[in-house]
Design brief:
Length: 249
């Protein structure tokens, strides 16, 4: 039986603030609302969601709060976490699959991601594909390969929502670069007066892909030719960094 108050052990919860249970839950509820807004539905009761790089946050929050969900597929390269979820969630609406994809930060020994990589879920079967705090750790070749690969899994009329770090300051001041510029006491105007941001910067090479930062221009141009059309690239909110909504081209 699924433990209704599913308590994922602390050692399996990774990803910055996500170790903070209260933040993880409240932010997950906001992400679920954001998905509903993208799909223009009041809840996810009839929706099929593919959560790529799922971690534990969305599934735990849905189960604990009895959030309506049609079908949820959670995929991740973190095998121990996926094994835990497979063992402890016994609800036919939820499925979890481990992947062995390469990620310099999370799974350096994995297989390189390519556009024709086959996921263990049916193609053209998801209303929404979401990746929260996953592109924030993706190198440029994985960024476009991931988009091309995921394109096969969305239903006609479905969508793709992912968060990312964009190399710019924003009006709300909630982005990665906002925090850096405040910390260094650099104004937004100073930053705008630079010759321009690099297309891509692995912010701290000592911690590969901990912060994968893209210029707005490059983040948008990497979507070209992947089969997706950009609907919007949105500023950070309290619970999410910049985020892009795409639909099938
Ligand atoms: C910061 S955590 C975010 C987890 C979850 N999406 C959330 O927002 O709570 C990033 C997750 O992405 C997973 N990940 C990284 N690269 C991946 C890839 N290429 N394919 C699938 N999962 C990946 C990691 O194992 C990790 O669980």
């Amino acid at each position: 039986m699924t433990e209704p108050n599913l308590q994922v052990p602390r050692e399996l919860r990774r990803g910055g603030k996500l170790e903070d249970e209260a933040y993880a839950q409240s932010s997950a509820l906001q992400l679920i609302d954001l998905i509903c807004d993208c799909l223009e539905v009041p809840d996810l009761g009839n929706a099929s969601v593919l959560d790529m790089g799922c971690g534990y946050r969305l599934a735990q929050t849905m189960l604990r709060n009895n959030v309506p969900i049609g079908h949820y597929s959670g995929l991740d390269v973190y095998h121990e976490l996926i094994a835990y979820l497979q063992e402890n969630v016994n609800d036919e609406r939820f499925e979890f699959h481990p992947l062995n994809l390469h990620n310099e930060m999370y799974n350096p020994g994995g297989e390189l991601l390519s556009a024709d990589f086959q996921l263990p879920v049916p193609e053209a079967s998801f209303d929404i594909i979401c990746l929260f705090s996953v592109f924030t750790h993706l190198a440029p070749h994985d960024y476009s390969a991931m988009l091309k690969m995921l394109r096969r899994y969305v239903k006609p009329g479905g969508g793709l929502l992912f968060s990312l770090f964009v190399y710019e300051t924003t009006a709300g001041g909630l982005g990665f670069i906002d925090k850096i510029s405040t910390g260094l006491n650099i104004s937004a105007t100073d930053i705008e007066n630079w010759s321009g941001p690099p297309a891509f910067k692995d912010w701290d090479p000592q911690q590969p892909l901990k912060w994968a930062i893209y210029s707005r221009e490059h983040a948008l141009e990497l979507v070209e030719g992947t089969g997706w059309k950009v609907e919007s690239l949105n500023d950070p909110r309290t619970y999410i960094q910049h985020h892009m909504l795409c639909t099938p081209e």
